[in-house]
């Protein structure tokens, strides 16, 4: 049970369950887009639902986000912490037998076969009518085609006779082409035999000179091999020459490398001598300036002694700062100065007194920080460690006091320093008279003060002399300080120079060892290069000798080859007559061959066969039935032409346009094919309808039996609950005599008053509360027949009177307490008193509002303890 006040968000639970289980917003009837369900002012909403499925339970998490343009939204889905998609979540929810978009969960989840059979019956009725319309339409089309073909039959017969004559004429022409080809081929074969005789005669003549020909072939092979060998030797000799040049180049490079190493060593020795001279000079200047700096470092100490005379607290603060400036507690210790009297310098000592008189004593004793955090740290330290309780900082005056009582805590009083006042007010006449009177009195006082001042000046003369002496000493200190700064700069420069010189320290002995070692390695490399070059030169000489010998052999072979070639040339002259006859016969044979080839191309073209294809077997058989004599074939061709001409003259339409018959035949053939197809299709459709009628009869019997049995069970439960309310209720199945299954329905009949009759539940006859009672009892009656994990009922008790609402609650509790039924979520904004509760009921109270404590801040132990104490009281 979910309880809360109106508007506190109880229906948000229903929305979250629907959307979190991949449901559509249209089911809720509130908004069309998911972005409209996100809380106002938020960019995203998170829904996490745990479905009972041990072990382990299944957790579905969904995150809905608004787009930055506020025009749409995106969603991310997770199953047990793993990224998924809405489609997979919907499939998972479906596997749990949950249908969020099914408001009653009746037939689709109780007995789906009954629903499927009902749909099948509806589809059959509509399909049967459509099939009969299609059959009638096809039969009319079939009759139309048959009547058209009867008209076209005679013309098609004449066209086919003409086609037969044309086919015969074409066959005879093909036969004539093949006969001409065979005649040319026989002539070609005869000429080819005569050419072969001449070839045999020429061969006998050449066989008599076979020894000379064999000798020439062997000499040709030897000459080719020897020439290849000589060419390879020439290439190897060139490669050896290149290698010798490379060795010479490597040897020259090694000599230059050794020379460069010696020159580098001499240069380093000279540079080392020069560096040693610079090092000694820099060291001397560094020691001299450091001595002067130590003498001048007493300037700051002298100034601090003067500061101590004016302010002991400032002296202690400066001393503490110098000792602790470099510690980690300061963020920028290099930019901390103070007191100013110690830090500043006046270039010309003549103006020092004017600077001191111009700057206030408080400012001369001040400290300067570039970082505000360092300033705060300094103030805290001087107050806590040095016990300085009176000082100025910026525009405020700080005074610290320790309490005499309790824990003696320190309290600090900060007083703002008053700004300077200027005479910029308007003139007041009365105030002017008052001020004039005061001025006359003050003038008298001034005269008395001036006389006293004259006496004081006389007394101050020895003091001014002492101040002049102090100023002179101060000038000396300032000069010393400026010299210290210059000296420190020079010392740093010389120190860096010394460090640089020391960093490039040159060890002459070590460099000499390295030089000798490198020269030794170079000598080894030169020796290796020399050995390699000697080996190459030796190989080069051997190859040159071998090349000269092979060249001599090649000259001998060429002379022998020319000798045998002359003998063979004389033999060829003897066979010139035979060769001329063979050439003439070859030309004649080639002409016959080309003629036969052209005849073959013409025959294949006439036969509509490709150049590389053979004649079809059917065409060969038809050609074999025709004569092989050209004259006889020509006579038959003339006879077929006469028949064709006679057939064409008899039909005026053919004479007018031969293509008309082609169109007629095509239409005739198409009509024949369509007639055959339509006949088969009509017979199949009629057979299918007969088979479907038989199946539907069986389906009607099983469906009506099942639906009547189901309706009777629901009616029994419905009557049971209505009897407890002292009312009458029935569930009836409405049927149709014509078996129009679309008009079948389940009706709810109710009677709430004894004076009324049992009436069909209707929005015009019953009140809203009565309809709610009937609806919830109908849903309760379905529970034992439905299978689903949980049910949600949102404010079904709206409009009921308290008595009916209480009884309905008891019915829901009775049904939902059974372990075999689904989990029930009953959402209501009110809770009636004196209700009976079952131990299996869980009450969920929603606390929500602008002033409510966040649930993450609840302390359950404190809540329980408080209630426990209240119970004891």
UniProtKB/TrEMBL annotation:
Q: Which GO terms describe its cellular component?
A: nucleus; Smc5-Smc6 complex
What keywords are assigned to this protein?
Coiled coil
Q: Which GO terms describe its biological process?
A: double-strand break repair via homologous recombination
Answer whether the UniProt record assigns the keyword Membrane to this protein: no
In the UniProt record, the signal sequence range is: none
Where does the record place a coiled coil?
A: 128-275, 425-459, 561-606
Q: Name one GO molecular function term.
A: single-stranded DNA binding
Q: Name one Pfam family in it.
A: SMC_N
Gene3D superfamilies in the cross-refs: P-loop containing nucleotide triphosphate hydrolases
User: Could you tell me which residue ranges the RecF/RecN/SMC N-terminal domain spans?
Assistant: 7-828
Q: What family name appears in the similarity comment?
A: Belongs to the SMC family. SMC5 subfamily.
Name-wise, this protein is Structural maintenance of chromosomes protein 5
Q: Which organism is it from?
A: Trichoplax adhaerens (Trichoplax reptans)
Q: What is the lineage of its organism?
A: Eukaryota, Metazoa, Placozoa, Uniplacotomia, Trichoplacea
């Amino acid at each position: 049970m979910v309880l809360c006040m109106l508007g506190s968000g109880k229906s948000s639970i229903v929305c979250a369950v629907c959307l979190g289980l991949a449901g559509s917003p249209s089911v809720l009837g509130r908004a069309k887009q998911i972005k409209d369900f996100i809380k106002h002012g938020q960019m995203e909403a998170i829904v996490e639902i745990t479905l009972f499925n041990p072990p382990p339970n299944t957790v579905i998490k969904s995150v809905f986000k608004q787009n930055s343009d506020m025009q749409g939204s995106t969603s991310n889905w997770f199953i047990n912490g793993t990224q998924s998609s809405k489609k997979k979540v919907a499939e998972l929810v479906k596997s749990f037998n949950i249908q969020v978009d099914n408001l009653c969960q009746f037939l689709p989840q109780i007995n789906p076969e009954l629903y499927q059979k009902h749909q099948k019956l509806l589809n059959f009725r509509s399909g049967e009518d459509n099939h009969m319309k299609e059959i009638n339409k096809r039969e009319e089309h079939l009759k139309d085609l048959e009547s058209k073909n009867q008209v076209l039959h005679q013309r098609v017969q004449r066209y086919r006779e003409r086609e037969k004559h044309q086919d015969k004429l074409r066959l005879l022409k093909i036969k004539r082409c093949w006969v001409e080809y065979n005649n040319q081929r026989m002539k070609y074969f005869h000429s080819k035999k005569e050419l072969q005789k001449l070839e045999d005669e020429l061969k006998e003549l050449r066989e008599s000179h076979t020894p000379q020909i064999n000798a020439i072939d062997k000499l040709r092979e030897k000459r080719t091999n020897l020439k290849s060998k000589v060419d390879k030797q020439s290439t190897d000799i060139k490669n050896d020459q290149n290698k010798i040049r490379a060795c010479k180049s490597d040897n020259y490079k090694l000599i230059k490398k050794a020379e460069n190493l010696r020159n580098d060593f001499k240069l380093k020795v000279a540079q080392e001598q020069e560096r040693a001279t610079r090092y000694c000079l820099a060291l001397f200047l560094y020691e001299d300036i450091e001595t002067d700096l130590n003498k001048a470092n007493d300037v700051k100490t002298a100034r601090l002694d003067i500061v101590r005379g004016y302010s002991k607290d400032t002296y202690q603060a400066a001393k503490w700062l110098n000792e602790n400036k470099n510690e980690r507690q300061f963020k920028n210790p290099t930019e901390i100065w103070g007191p100013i009297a110690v830090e500043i310098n006046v270039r010309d000592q003549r103006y020092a007194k004017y600077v001191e008189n111009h700057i206030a004593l408080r400012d001369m004793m001040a400290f300067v920080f570039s970082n505000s955090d360092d300033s705060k740290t300094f103030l805290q330290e001087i107050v806590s460690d040095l016990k300085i309780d009176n000082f100025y900082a910026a525009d405020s005056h700080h005074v610290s006091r320790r309490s005499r009582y309790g824990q003696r805590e320190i309290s600090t009083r900060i007083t703002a320093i008053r700004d300077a006042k200027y005479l910029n007010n308007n003139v007041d006449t009365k105030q002017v008279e008052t001020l004039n009177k005061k001025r006359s009195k003050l003038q008298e006082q001034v005269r008395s003060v001036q006389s006293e001042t004259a006496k004081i000046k006389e007394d101050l003369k020895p003091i001014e002399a002492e101040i002049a002496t102090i100023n002179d000493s101060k000038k000396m200190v300032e000069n010393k300080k400026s010299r210290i700064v210059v000296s420190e700069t020079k010392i740093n420069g010389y120190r860096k120079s010394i460090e640089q010189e020391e960093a490039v320290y040159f060890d002459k002995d070590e460099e000499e060892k390295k030089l000798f070692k490198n020269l030794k390695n170079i000598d080894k490399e030169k020796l290796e290069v020399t050995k390699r070059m000697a080996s190459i030169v030796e190989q080069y000489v051997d190859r040159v000798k071998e090349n000269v010998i092979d060249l001599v052999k090649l000259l001998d072979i060429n002379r022998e080859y020319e000798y045998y070639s002359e003998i063979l040339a004389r033999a060829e002259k003897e066979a010139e007559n035979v060769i001329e006859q063979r050439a003439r016969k070859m030309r004649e044979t080639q002409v016959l061959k080309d003629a036969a080839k052209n005849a073959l191309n013409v025959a294949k073209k006439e036969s509509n066969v490709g150049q590389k294809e053979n004649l079809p077997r059917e065409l060969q058989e038809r050609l074999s039935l025709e004569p092989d004599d050209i004259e006889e074939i020509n006579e038959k061709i003339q006879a077929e032409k006469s028949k064709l001409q006679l057939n064409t003259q008899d039909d005026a339409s053919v004479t007018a346009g031969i293509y008309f018959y082609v169109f007629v035949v095509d239409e005739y053939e198409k009509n024949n094919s369509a007639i055959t197809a339509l006949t088969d299709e009509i017979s199949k459709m009629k057979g299918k309808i007969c088979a479907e009628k038989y199946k539907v009869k069986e389906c009607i019997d099983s469906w009506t039996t099942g639906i009547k049995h189901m309706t009777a069970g629901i009616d029994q439960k419905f009557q049971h609950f209505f009897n407890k309310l002292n009312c009458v209720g029935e569930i009836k199945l409405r049927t149709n005599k014509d078996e129009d299954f679309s008009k079948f329905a389940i009706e709810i009949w109710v009677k709430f008053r004894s004076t009324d009759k049992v009436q069909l539940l209707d929005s015009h006859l019953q009140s809203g509360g009565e309809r709610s009672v009937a609806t919830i009892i109908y849903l309760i009656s379905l529970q034992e027949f439905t299978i689903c994990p949980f049910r949600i009922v949102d404010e079904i008790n709206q409009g009921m009177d308290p008595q009916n609402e209480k009884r309905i609650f008891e019915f829901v509790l009775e049904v939902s307490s059974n372990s075999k039924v689904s989990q029930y979520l009953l959402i209501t904004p009110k809770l009636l008193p004196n209700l009976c509760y079952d131990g299996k009921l869980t009450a969920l109270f929603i606390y929500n509002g602008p002033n409510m404590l966040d649930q993450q801040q609840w302390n359950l132990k404190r809540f329980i303890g408080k209630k426990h104490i209240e119970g004891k009281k």
